[in-house]
């Protein structure tokens, strides 16, 4: 390696260390996350694209590889991966309170909208609205931008690009949350065994202001609640306790997030008689029309069952496992990811993440959004506004919503 290359790597490392260790204002974290919560349409894969644009490209709170490492970690953990990435970045900037601020900002807009729908607007059908279809189309452009940008950094050579392609193919053939976890693990093992340790570049250090004692307490709380809540539920007939147990267990055991959570939630609230199938499906339709994480569907379910208090209980319970898991993992994450062998594994893992995103670009993002040539035209226009004109994502979201409404009016 030349002296110039060494100097460039040192500069990159110092920049990443500075950005990750600079403590951010909780109000700043809340403001950025709220803007994302108001504009991040398209589901969890699209959310990762929005996050990358905001946190990596625009604010440079962390570098591309560190962001990909966090995505890989959250893909391994149960729960909503995109929300967990946002919580992790908030904790990196402002500790536990920073994570809470990030979660509130990203989650509250859609949670409030769905809670209002549960209390007031049931029976209002938005599933066939043209503007909603436009929001699905913009997700194609957002995910395509993320795949393009991440592939240039994370799959720069033939071996890693091949891992991404193979992962994408297998993901399309075997589209399950377990399959994704298995592919990520296999890519990590391949990287550990076959990628040269000496040629893997060092990553900038990330500082998470959370102690290892806090991490251990988080793991104890997570396991204790997961095992203890069902026992307490058997001993106490409290409806509130039963709700908390059901939503906490769903948040603890679902891998992949997004639409994977729906059958588990249905199994908890419909057979028990808490909600009817009609109520459940009405809320699911409304959830497609709001930005932010699909896990906020819990606010609708809780609100439909027990009003405002039910919405709060369900929302806190389904996201609490994510907080405990992220707080338990982050204090150990930087030392683990800095190990030379694990860096090689992460090179394979990150290539697999690119492959999973590539597969998701086709299914479900493309297959659910692009139904005609004019849909494809709107997607190309949105992609051009993002990539060539560098417009903020929220502007492109508004543009696509109007485009979808116009297409619906003309067809």
TrEMBL record:
<feature type="transmembrane region" description="Helical">
    <location>
        <begin position="239"/>
        <end position="261"/>
    </location>
</feature>
<feature type="transmembrane region" description="Helical">
    <location>
        <begin position="215"/>
        <end position="232"/>
    </location>
</feature>
<feature type="compositionally biased region" description="Polar residues">
    <location>
        <begin position="7"/>
        <end position="21"/>
    </location>
</feature>
<dbReference type="GO" id="GO:0015109">
    <property type="term" value="F:chromate transmembrane transporter activity"/>
</dbReference>
<dbReference type="InterPro" id="IPR003370">
    <property type="entry name" value="Chromate_transpt"/>
</dbReference>
<feature type="region of interest" description="Disordered">
    <location>
        <begin position="1"/>
        <end position="21"/>
    </location>
</feature>
<keyword id="KW-0472">Membrane</keyword>
<comment type="similarity">
    <text>Belongs to the chromate ion transporter (CHR) (TC 2.A.51) family.</text>
</comment>
<feature type="transmembrane region" description="Helical">
    <location>
        <begin position="394"/>
        <end position="410"/>
    </location>
</feature>
<dbReference type="InterPro" id="IPR014047">
    <property type="entry name" value="Chr_Tranpt_l_chain"/>
</dbReference>
<keyword id="KW-1133">Transmembrane helix</keyword>
<feature type="transmembrane region" description="Helical">
    <location>
        <begin position="281"/>
        <end position="301"/>
    </location>
</feature>
<keyword id="KW-0812">Transmembrane</keyword>
<feature type="transmembrane region" description="Helical">
    <location>
        <begin position="345"/>
        <end position="362"/>
    </location>
</feature>
<protein>
    <submittedName>
        <fullName>Chromate transporter</fullName>
    </submittedName>
</protein>
<dbReference type="GO" id="GO:0005886">
    <property type="term" value="C:plasma membrane"/>
</dbReference>
<feature type="transmembrane region" description="Helical">
    <location>
        <begin position="369"/>
        <end position="388"/>
    </location>
</feature>
<feature type="transmembrane region" description="Helical">
    <location>
        <begin position="26"/>
        <end position="51"/>
    </location>
</feature>
<dbReference type="Pfam" id="PF02417">
    <property type="entry name" value="Chromate_transp"/>
</dbReference>
<feature type="transmembrane region" description="Helical">
    <location>
        <begin position="162"/>
        <end position="195"/>
    </location>
</feature>
<keyword id="KW-1003">Cell membrane</keyword>
<feature type="transmembrane region" description="Helical">
    <location>
        <begin position="308"/>
        <end position="333"/>
    </location>
</feature>
<feature type="transmembrane region" description="Helical">
    <location>
        <begin position="100"/>
        <end position="124"/>
    </location>
</feature>
<feature type="transmembrane region" description="Helical">
    <location>
        <begin position="130"/>
        <end position="150"/>
    </location>
</feature>
């Amino acid at each position: 390696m030349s002296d110039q290359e060494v100097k460039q790597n040192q500069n990159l490392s110092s920049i990443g260390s500075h950005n990750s260790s600079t403590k951010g204002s909780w109000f700043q974290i809340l403001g950025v996350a709220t803007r994302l919560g108001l504009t991040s349409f398209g589901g969890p894969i699209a959310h990762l694209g929005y996050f990358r644009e905001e946190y990596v490209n625009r604010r440079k709170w962390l570098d591309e590889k560190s962001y990909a490492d966090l995505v890989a970690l959250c893909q391994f953990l149960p729960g909503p991966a995109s929300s967990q990435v946002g919580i992790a970045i908030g904790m990196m900037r402002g500790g536990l309170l920073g994570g809470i601020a990030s979660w509130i900002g990203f989650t509250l807009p859609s949670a409030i909208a769905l809670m209002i729908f549960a209390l007031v607007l049931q029976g209002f059908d938005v599933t066939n609205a043209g503007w909603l279809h436009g929001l699905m189309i913009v997700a194609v452009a957002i995910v395509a931008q993320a795949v393009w940008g991440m592939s240039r950094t994370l799959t720069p050579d033939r071996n890693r690009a091949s891992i991404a392609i193979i992962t994408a193919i297998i993901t399309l053939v075997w589209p399950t949350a377990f399959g994704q976890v298995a592919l990520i693990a296999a890519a990590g093992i391949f990287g550990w065994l076959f990628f040269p340790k000496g040629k893997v570049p060092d990553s900038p250090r990330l500082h998470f202001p959370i102690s290892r004692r806090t991490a251990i307490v988080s793991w104890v709380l997570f396991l204790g609640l997961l095992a203890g809540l069902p026992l307490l539920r058997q001993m106490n007939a409290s409806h509130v306790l039963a709700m908390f147990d059901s939503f906490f267990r769903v948040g603890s055991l679902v891998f992949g997030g997004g639409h994977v959570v729906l059958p588990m939630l249905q199994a908890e609230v419909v057979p028990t008689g808490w909600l009817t199938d009609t109520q459940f499906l009405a809320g699911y339709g409304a959830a497609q029309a709001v930005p932010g994480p699909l896990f906020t569907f819990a606010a609708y379910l809780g609100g439909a069952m027990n009003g405002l208090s039910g919405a709060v209980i369900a929302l806190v319970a389904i996201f609490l496992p994510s907080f405990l898991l992220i707080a338990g993992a982050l204090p150990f994450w930087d030392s683990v990811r800095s190990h030379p062998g694990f860096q090689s594994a992460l090179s394979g893992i990150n290539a697999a993440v690119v492959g999973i995103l590539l597969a998701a670009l086709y299914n479900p993002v493309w297959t659910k959004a692009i139904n005609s040539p004019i849909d494809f035209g709107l997607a190309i226009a949105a992609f051009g506004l993002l990539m060539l004109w560098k417009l903020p994502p929220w502007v492109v979201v508004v543009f696509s919503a109007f485009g979808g409404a116009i297409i619906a009016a003309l067809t």
